[in-house]
Amino acid sequence: MNGAAARAVMAVALPLMRQDDRCWAHAMGAEFEEAERDGQGLRFAMGCLGVAARRLTGSGRGWHFLTRHGVALAIILPFALFHLGCALRGLRYWLAGGDPYVAALSAGDAGQRLIAVAYRTWSPWIALLLVVLGTLHIVIAWRIACCQWRGARHAMIAAILVVAGLLLCIAVVHPTPGGMVLQAVALAVELLSVPILAAWQARHNVPIR
Length: 209
Known about the structure:
This protein is an all-alpha fold. Helix content is about 85%, strand content about 0%.
């Protein structure tokens, strides 16, 4: 058990080493094998993790690394999971034919019944757009984490187009201000984060891909 935990800690520690410390990281990996044979693998791995964290937070590049991964994992990726979850829930309701929103509309007046028909018609397309949007958010998160700013911008442009189509559909069949505000917030975060992180990276003379 300790051996597996030690290897897991080393798997986290080594990638955290800066580009300037890659030789040292290789040496740490070799020393880890010896420490593991002596039964000190976990202790050595925890020490490596502490050193990597201290060196990472001691430079601008390190903070950039932590910030972009934080944005990708804590902000962009949750939006991806949210969109994919909404798509799966809507698809499940559509396939089961038991959407409570449609049922409530169908029991209403003529205008609500008309919306119910439109909702049933557009639901598969809304679900598809949500899947595409969730996938694009995963791509954006990955591009941000890897400093691939051009790819992140291209994915954001695609996401903006998808959101425009999604909001058009929602405005017709299920106008929810909360959902629209959430989409706007997600796009605002992405539109602001990419140029800010790219400019920060440029100040440290790191090639932008």
